[in-house]
Amino acid sequence: MAENKIFAGPRVRRIRNGLGLTQTAMAEALSISPSYLNLIERNQRPLTVQLLLRLASVYKVDMEDLQGEAGGSVAQLKEVFADPLLSGELPGDLELVEVADAAPNVAGGIVKLYRAYREQASRLSDLAEVLSREGRATSLAGARLPIDEVREKLEQRSNYFEAIDAAAEAFHAALAPGDDLAGALKAWLKKEHGVVVRLLPVHAMPTLRRRFDRHSMRLFLSERLSAHDQLREIAMEAVQLALREEIAAELDRLTLSGNEARRIARFELARNAAHALMMPYDAFLAAAQRARFDIDLLRTRFAVSFEQAATRLTMLQRPGQAAPPFFLLELDVAGHRLRRAGAQGFPQARFGGGCPKLNVHAAFAQPGQVLAERVEMPDGAAFLTVSRTLDGPHTAFGERVRRTALLLGCDAVAAAETAYGEAVQPPPVAVGAACRLCERQGCLGRAEPPVTRPLGLDEMVAGLSLFDFQ
Asked: Where, if anywhere, are coiled coils annotated (predicted)?
């Protein structure tokens, strides 16, 4: 029967050093040569079953200590070295295994230090936001991924790109698609660029939503996509060809630092242009005003999804021809922020979007239902919010649906212009920008204490909140 071989040199060395033995003394007790033991400790020879039994017999060593894996430590170290701060220092898996094996306490210390660093970075970010809201600029900055840079640039500016929007509207007029934009775009792609659109079954493209094959000049789309998402993918391919110069010009204006950030931003601008093509500015604004910005009516009118119509509402800021300044926020069920955008930039300072009492979180309990409410911030600023869940690509039986929730908001002053304003009755829901920045007393939804106040721990008194503060 073949022997099971285990490379556990660092663990053998720790055992020997713990017992205060030399390599010669341990080798003699194990009936092997010192040179062979030296090779074992350097992971150049395996620790066989026979040697495991001898170690257990001679030194009363638990065999599980020698056979145990450092998988947990390795996974934690991978998380540490995946941070943008250490992106240039990422070691291979073998090196991480060696660190976890040879110095488990050191590995644990690295993980603890990293977690403390992340916590401090989070607190500094919160404090920087507090100071910026008071008009005091800060230079606090942490390591960022390219996607973080792109998000920051897009969230701080209007979601309206004038040149792209105007070019998309002109492109739509030239196509004259009638009620079949998808058909018109397919015909244009084939005639002008020789690109053929094909729909592929799940087994042919199990992990992709789209793929462009440059050799055969075919755009493959997954049948998992809804008709609305298929149209957007086709529109994105078309605008990257027809609006290449306009997209490149807007990309240059964003002044991004690296090629990866530019690639991500190009994708976002193409999606913006696709929405402008699917819902031309003049026609969409006129329809939105007639429907009083009712998203369900608009998505039916333009044969788009709820998410696409809501996103387009945040883009209607043409000078002299603007809609109320809408903004949006999309979250997953775990609360991760997927995207934020606004007609005038996402109102981070005034609205925040991190309060657990917002109806975007409640939407997950009522899939497909539109929830509207008026919310009020601690400083008295009020907003109308409209939330609904969004389902991702179609799934097969047994697969879990990818579900997110979208919040569309605007200043409460503009609520009367919308179909949702009449349905929202006082009193407003008291919310905050985020728990760490909110000082509302007795909040039942509080998830964290504010960074601006010390905790109010009192053995005699306990408040309604899980985190009482002074």
From this structure: none
